[in-house]
């Protein structure tokens, strides 16, 4: 089997395992800094998230929810969201967002392209505008090349062929090295399945409270899994009927 075939096989197996089994943990990221610019789920050229920010404190009481609640979303479909790629910003914005100012009229390359992010796409996910995720999983790298040096808030991308392919904003990655990469307005989803432990920064939709993500973000817990927020602030999406770790 070719290297490309191996990489595609690993990706397919991982997706199947995540859907079929395992335990999902969602850890609320404590936001102690100022709000980032833009709109929730968007990512600026510094990798920041948007104006809808997560609470700066963790949950203080036990909460159990089936995930049927929801805050007011900023989008309904992918067409509501668009990518801003200019001399100042590489980000996704919603129709509710005010345009981000950019005082640099000309540059060698717009912000996304300058980092090697040549094909950014905007989608509506759970009522939030965000980048369509691309692979940032170093376990899928098959070549001997060194990863690129990325700016703060960006991570190396992995191409479908299994080699490094420029840098992308953290919010565009399908996996991150650790939860410290998640910013205000995001939660860190820690997934454990038969392929190992994987972390992903997911946006908290506008109108949702970080104190009760289960009540307003059903996308964090797939159908058939129960979302729980214990007193320590860690959110768990469990699947009692699933086989696996």
What does this molecule look like?
With 245 residues, this protein is of the alpha+beta class. The protein has one domain. The protein has three helices and twelve strands, in the order H-E-E-E-E-H-E-E-E-E-E-E-H-E-E. The protein has helices at 3-20, 111-114, 213-216; strands at residues 23-28, 63-65, 82-85, 90-93, 122-125, 128-131, 154-158, 164-169, 186-193, 196-203, 226-229, 234-238. The strands form four sheets. A six-stranded antiparallel beta sheet has the order 2-11-12-1-9-10. A hairpin with a 2-residue loop joins strand 9 (186-193) and strand 10. The protein starts with a helix and ends in a 7-residue tail after the last strand. Residues 15-71 have low confidence and may be disordered.
* Major sheet attributes: 6 strands, antiparallel
Secondary-structure element pattern, one letter each: HEEEEHEEEEEEHEE
Low-confidence stretches: 15-71
- Our estimate of the beta-strand percent is 15-25%
Query: In angstroms, what separates the terminal alpha carbons?
Result: 29 Å
- The DSSP helix count reads 3
The class by helix and strand makeup works out as: alpha+beta
> For the CA atoms, what is the radius of gyration?
18 Å
Counting DSSP E segments of at least 2 residues, the number of strands comes to 12
Main-sheet strand order equals: 2-11-12-1-9-10
Percent helix, as a range, is 10-25%
Look at the structure and give the mean pLDDT.
Answer: 70
The total number of structural domains is 1
Quaternary structure annotation = single chain
Question: What characteristic shape results from the CA principal axes?
Answer: globular
